[in-house]
What does this fold into?
Amino acid sequence: RRFLRPRLSRGKHWVRRAVVAYVLIALFTLLPYIRIGGKPALLFDVIHRRFSILGTTFLPTDTMLLMLFLVGTFVGIFFLTALFGRVWCGWGCPQTVYMEYVYRPIERLIEGGIGRQVKLDRDGPNARRFLRYAVFALLSMFLAHTFLAYFVGVDQLAAWIFGSPFKHPVAFLVMAVVSVLMFLDFSYFRE
It folds into this structure.
């Protein structure tokens, strides 16, 4: 396989995209921890059938409101894409944001520039490539835990992290599968 090794093109739009990307990354990472009115900012507790969105709890009887909110979100994304082209894909999509502003910078930091990366692709991995894989694995586990916090809450997640995985095998399996999928996506499949 020939990996794409895009050159960094800095300019005014790159800086703007970086600001948007890091705000989105901070938002994604911090939303499970932020409390509004004593409730998590976002919690999709499927097991107890309670969705907390910006301090408001939606129950199964509020399905119509939740459906309208989700449909409105998707229509908004499609509307922005129709008006401004691929603004979602280039500026807001989690795949692009994490690839270009987290994983690729770590890759450049550990392995060096494009020339060194191509040489590693050609000659085979060395300690730098294995270090990159280790950092990617840890980062993917962190993101998987963050993803899981949206569905179980940070308090429950903290109890599970410090407890035995045999006490909560389904949650552990979800975290492991999401970690592996993220690792494969950002280290191998990429584009």
In short: The helical segments are 12-30, 63-84, 87-92, 94-111, 114-123, 127-152, 154-161, 169-189. The CA atoms of residues 1 and 122 lie 10 Å apart.
